[in-house]
Amino acid sequence: MGLGSKNSLAIVVPAIILGALKFSDNWPFSEVADVSQEEDYALFTHGNGELHCLDRELRHPCVTELREYVEVNTTEKKDAALNCVRGVLETSNDFYVLKNMTHLLLDLDTVVHVFDKESRDNEFVLAGIDYAKKLMKHPECLAEYDWKSDMQCRCVPLFTKISLLKLKNAGRWDEAKAMYEEQKKISYHSEKTSLPEGEAVKWLNWQQTPQIWVPGLRSMPIWERETWKDLPICQLLEDNFATIKEETERALRGDPEENGFEDAYRFLYEKGEWSQILLYSGRNFTRECEGVMPKTCALIKQWLPSKPGFPWTSDQNEQVLVLKMKKGTNVELHSGPSNNILNIHIGISGLEGARLTVAGKDYKWEEGKVIAWDGSYDHQIDCLDCVDDQRVIMMVRYMHPDMTAEHYKGIPRTQFEDVPAHLQ
Questions:
Q1: Whether the bond into 305 is cis, omega within 30 of 0
Q2: Which of 203, 298, 358, 403 is least surrounded by Cβ atoms within 10 Å, i.e. has the fewest?
Q3: pLDDT-derived band of residue 206, with 50, 70 and 90 as boundaries?
Q4: Kindly report the CA angle at 162 between 381 and 6, in degrees rounded to 5?
């Protein structure tokens, strides 16, 4: 690793490492022993229904110490677990050890909060951030700049975003801002790729830090009514509100399970209830869309997809959901995966006292009125001061209107799907 100027962090990857990393997910540098014979290789497993992230097992060291701490929370058990965690951090350079310990301690894969259950600001969370910092300097993390496109989720922006949100939710605003400024100075150079400062991490605002950044798109937390000529979905929702409200209220009166309500983003809140009916996702109209809200579904089919033929960067690029939130629910600060996704909300019922906060500014829903905003900005939702028992809205995730065919030139694949040859 080489350093650039005094104010810039430059990363140089040797050619021998690049050759090993280029085309394979079978990474080198592995210090992990053969775990096929191990019984207790992870604190949480898919088999026990404790993990929602299905792409890998969350294998990690310090299992015994961490399990004893989680099950018997004493000072002695806590100290033993932290000593093990810190010892591994100091001595290990294994990519997957660093990655899995980051995921574990920051509660990124578990179904419910564990290490930040009682407090977002504690020694385990801070250790997880330290793991993320070490991970982001690892050659395998950095090499994703060589083999992933701008429209894929790369290691450095992803774990910077996660760390920033953890710091912000812990109230450590100065540390978050310092980390943002430091990461913005990163540059990366290899035989294949050269990214100067500002190109490796392209964010322009410390409150807008999506893991995927599409250049050249207008960026504003709220899309005011005068911009809606570029967002026809906004007026369409308001013009058809009577139909949307009628079918939503009928769904709310019915059996929640029969009508398709399920937990929404359970990892973002500790207490309360937030549930959804998914009507459109992954370019598919759901059973609930057709069966529970057929009139609304017929309208949505006329409106979406907004840009047929354009690849999505995420399965969230365009979605339609009905969201209900119980009084007392408080969703922590979070942000969307890409800056090419806008959130279009229309208020339906129980709106008094409910709050949407985007980039530090509070907004209120109104019945039959749209709020259009950029989900890649930091945002929070809460129903702490709700007057009624539940707040209900419809949300449409909508591809940014500035997306054009030019954005896909030279891009073989997005995070979500392959780019057709004629767009490359």
A1: yes
A2: 298
A3: very high
A4: 130
pLDDT of res. 22: 31
**DSSP secondary structure letter of residue 51:** B
Asked if residue 21 and residue 129 are part of one domain, the reply reads yes
Which of 176, 195, 214 is the endpoint of a domain? 195
**pTM above 0.85?**
yes
pLDDT attached to residue 272: 93
Comparing 212 with 10, which gets the higher pLDDT?
A: 212
DSSP per-residue letters across 12-32: E--HHHHHHHTT-SS-S----
Q: Do 132 and 272 fall within a single domain?
A: no
Instruction: Report if residue 273 sits inside a domain.
Output: yes
- Residues of the domain holding 164: 9-195
Closest by Cα among 355, 361, 374 to 204: 374
**Distance separating alpha carbons of residues 325 and 316, to the nearest angstrom:** 20
The Cα 51–Cα 114 span in angstroms is: 12
State mean pLDDT over 368-391. 98
Whichever domain contains 291, its CATH number is: 2.60.120.330
Is residue 55 very low, low, confident or very high in pLDDT (cuts 50, 70, 90)? confident
Whether residues 187 and 251 fall in one domain:
no
Domain match, 41 and 155 both:
yes
Using CA atoms, how far apart are residues 4 and 12, in angstroms rounded to an integer?
10
pLDDT, residue 39, reads 66
50 half-sphere exposure, CB direction, 13 A CA radius: 12
Concatenate the DSSP letters of all residues of 305-322 into one string.
Answer: SSSTTPPPSSTTSSEEEE
Q: Does any domain span residue 251?
A: yes
The reply to whether 399 falls in a domain is: yes
SS3 379: strand
SS3 281: strand
How much is the average pLDDT of 78-88? Answer: 98
